[in-house]
User: Fold Phosphopantetheine adenylyltransferase from Acetobacterium bakii.
Amino acid sequence: MSLKIAVYPGSFDPLTKGHLDIIQRAATVFDKLIVCVMVNKSKNYLFSCEERAQLIAESLEGLDNVEVDTCNGLLIDYVRSRKTNIIVKGLRALTDFENEFQMALTNKHLDNNIETFFMMTSNKYSYLSSSLVKELVKFQGNVSDFVPVNVEKAIQKKYEEGCIR
Assistant:
């Protein structure tokens, strides 16, 4: 029997407890979950790709079947390179579904073997986004309820270094 390997892609800038919720739950469904930090050249990131990957890896204690990787190309090519056909996407609201559905159909068009699994976030994180966290940080808001402790410390360091305006 072959392992069911899934890829959970995202920018994770920064990683939120909502992302962790999806990671933890997907890790119970699939034999192996690859959290893939993606690079979107049109986005302005707070953390580098490598920093985001490191912060995620530090947050995954006890999840032995989860791996963190990076990709700066097309997701579909990455998924194929990892010898899987499964993509996991987290959904918070209807607007997420519309965007993710469009991407899933595009990926399916590019490779009919690709399957996208949508996971609804837990209710307590349905409003949470990385953008919201970054906006709070700009105004020195408390983000401890929204991100893991290591991410909060990294955000604070970026703030102290003047990287957040």
